[in-house]
Design goal:
The complex is a heterodimer of chains A (129) and B (416).
Chain A (H helix, E strand, L loop, with lengths): L1 E4 L8 E6 L5 E4 L4 H12 L2 E2 L2 E7 L15 E6 L3 E2 L3 H9 L2 E3 L7 E3 L9 E3 L7
Parallel strand pairs in A: 5-8
Antiparallel strand pairs in A: 1-2, 2-3, 4-7, 5-6, 6-10, 9-10
Chain B lengths: L1 E10 L3 H12 L4 E4 L15 E3 L8 E2 H14 L3 E3 L3 E8 L2 E8 L3 E12 L3 E3 L2 H4 L9 E3 H11 L6 E5 L3 H12 L3 E6 L9 H8 L6 E2 L2 E7 L6 E8 L2 E2 L5 E4 L2 E4 L3 E3 L2 H5 L24 E3 L10 H19 L7 E6 L3 E5 L2 E3 L4 E7 L3 E10 L2 E11 L5 E5 L12 E6 L1
Parallel strand pairs in B: 1-2, 1-8, 2-5, 8-20, 10-18, 11-12, 11-18, 12-13, 21-28
Antiparallel strand pairs in B: 3-4, 6-7, 7-8, 9-19, 14-15, 15-16, 15-17, 21-23, 22-24, 24-27, 25-26, 25-28
Helix pairs in contact in B: 1-2, 1-8, 4-5, 5-6
The chains are: A alpha+beta (129), B alpha/beta (416).
């Protein structure tokens, strides 16, 4: 038996994962179907949505100055949850990426990250002035 | 001085302000959003983590994504905004409201309106609010300030971090700083239970092996020019165990010790505030003690989910529109926070319409019961699997449930 807390949404259901008499995995304590999915994944293949930032560059390649209204970082996210053990490697890849402004929300900055089916996309549209 | 005139002015362009403005526009009123920053979105723009919008959009968005969905709606409808504009004063002049504000491009402005929606949000409590003893070196930040520095400005405030308080922003920052290559040594919480959401304890602390010290107090900060460490003292049965105090070396301290609604404008305008929430007193329509001035979102009371902020703000916007069209509630009853409830929002119930209430528990309990009482008689009882102060409770009351009410009846909401 293992106790987990579902992190799929802010409700934070307290899950109990057990095996029944046939050796099948059984999840209780979940308030919706996503709790059961989360428990299965968390036991065998834990994943997390990764949110991070990449450096923003102006159209001429320079960095937005301190008096600029433009941000110096562009928020990015994985499209879906990403394998937990590969996250440090993913962050290293994202540290090397710069994003040229203007940029539109949803723009892919890293396709099929580290050989997975997961893309990393821009989470905020930003103008260039 | 530039003069403008609108049916309604919304002060603050965050989630609450945008949602309220959209409702006013939908109901055919001219509306202006006044926003201090260069972009709409408010604090959501620095909250790059996901978890926003589960109720609103039935999906998990990051803060900027959530904000920009509203912003696009504002732009598509040509709702007017005045960005980089700071409101200095709200006054009643000639039967209307006058909003005095200033911006770098327009200078001083006077905006006339028949109604105002206050949506200024909240700000963080600081070291001064909780009076931590010790020196005053560099390296002490509120968690939200550190969040802005990292996520928008592109600076890492330090390498070896201790977080004081287990509020959600502090927990989110523990993960953010860990992912940025910093070492988060501990989170220190004075209470015996965490003040942030449970899932944030799991994915922001447990995932990184960051220890959470419950019932511990930071009793000293060391360092001359830069923070060098803190002293932590356990609390047992309400007493500080000085002989068990220990020291943690760090170069950065982040504070996540609560939020306070930002009501300087409201206070100066003579609007009555409530000690339980630090926000304005409001009636069943979310109207403050200044007629025609409504409040919603974190300026009214601190919410834990932006989805609730948006729901409340839509109500404030719709009520402001109704007020502009002449609606006044005919019959309201007083609503009181009963046992184990810190506050109920709003403080009046409308006997002509359905009423949404938000409230906060004072206790941590499994298998609790929420009771609505009319002059002491239970009119509704609901079982709750788990309650804790950090998770806001919500309740809908319809007039039929209160049909036995007399003129001076009181509704009380209690948690057992």
């Amino acid at each position: 038996m293992r106790e987990l807390i579902c992190i799929t949404c802010p409700l934070g259901c307290r899950l109990v994962v057990d095996t029944d008499e046939h050796g099948e995995m059984k999840v209780t304590g979940n308030r919706c179907v996503r709790g059961e999915q989360y428990a299965r994944e968390e036991m065998f293949n834990p994943k997390r949505v990764v949110t991070f930032t990449c450096a923003a560059l102006l159209p001429d390649g320079s960095v937005p100055g301190p008096r600029s209204d433009l941000p110096r970082r562009v928020p990015v996210r994985t499209t879906v949850a990403f394998p937990k053990e590969k996250i440090p490697e993913l962050l290293d890849a994202l540290r090397g990426i710069t994003v040229r402004l203007p940029v539109v929300r949803g723009t892919v900055v890293l396709r099929q990250a580290l050989g997975t089916e997961v893309d990393v996309i821009v989470a905020r549209s930003i103008a260039s002035k | 001085m530039k003069e403008l005139s609108f049916d309604a002015v919304v002060i603050g362009g965050g989630a609450a302000g945008m949602a309220a403005a959209l409702e006013l526009d939908t109901r055919g009123h001219s509306v202006l959003i006044v926003e201090r920053e260069a972009t709409l979105g408010g604090i959501l723009m620095q909250c790059i983590h996901n978890g926003f919008g589960l109720i609103e959009f039935n999906e998990e968005l990051t803060g900027p994504e959530f904000a920009q969905r509203f912003e696009e709606d504002i732009r598509n409808r040509n709702i007017q905004t005045s960005l980089r504009t700071t409101v200095l004063d709200i006054r009643e002049e000639g039967g209307l409201k006058a909003i005095y504000c200033v911006s770098p491009s327009q200078g001083m402005m006077r905006i006339e309106a028949r109604a105002i929606v206050l949506a200024m949000g909240c700000r963080e409590r600081t070291r001064g609010n909780i009076r931590i003893p010790g020196t005053r070196p560099a390296g002490i930040y509120t968690a939200g300030l550190a969040q802005r520095l990292i996520n928008i400005e592109g600076f890492i405030p330090g390498k070896d971090v201790v977080i004081i308080g287990s509020g959600d922003i502090g927990l989110i920052m523990a993960r953010r700083m860990s992912w940025s290559g910093c070492k988060v040594h501990a989170v220190i919480e004075i209470l015996p239970y965490p003040s942030g959401l449970t899932r944030n304890i799991v994915q922001c602390l447990d995932d990184f092996g960051i220890p959470l010290y419950l019932s511990h107090l930071v009793t000293n900060i060391y360092g001359k020019d830069r923070v060098e460490g803190i002293e932590v003292t356990p609390i047992e049965s309400g007493a500080l165990m000085h002989e068990k105090a220990f020291r943690i070396a760090c170069d950065t301290v982040l504070l996540s010790v609560g939020l306070v609604p930002e009501n300087e404008l409201s206070r100066n305008a003579g609007i009555e505030l409530q000690p339980a929430t630090n926000g304005p007193w409001v009636d069943s329509t979310l109207m403050t003690t200044m007629p025609g001035v409504f409040a919603c979102g974190n300026v009214l009371h601190v919410h834990d989910l932006v989805d609730y902020v948006v729901e409340e703000a839509r109500r404030a916007g719709a009520n402001a529109a109704a007020w502009l069209s002449g609606y006044r509630p005919a019959r309201e009853l007083r609503v009181k926070a009963g046992p184990n409830i810190r506050y109920v929002m709003p403080m009046r119930v409308n006997l002509e319409r359905e009423n949404r209430f938000y409230m906060r528990s004072l206790i941590v309990k499994n298998d609790a019961r929420l009771e609505v009482r009319l002059d002491g008689a239970v009119v509704r009882s609901r079982r709750l699997a788990h309650v804790q102060p950090s998770e806001m409770l919500s309740l809908m009351l319809v007039p039929e449930e209160l049909s036995a009410a007399g003129r001076d009846s009181t509704v009380e909401i209690a948690l057992l």
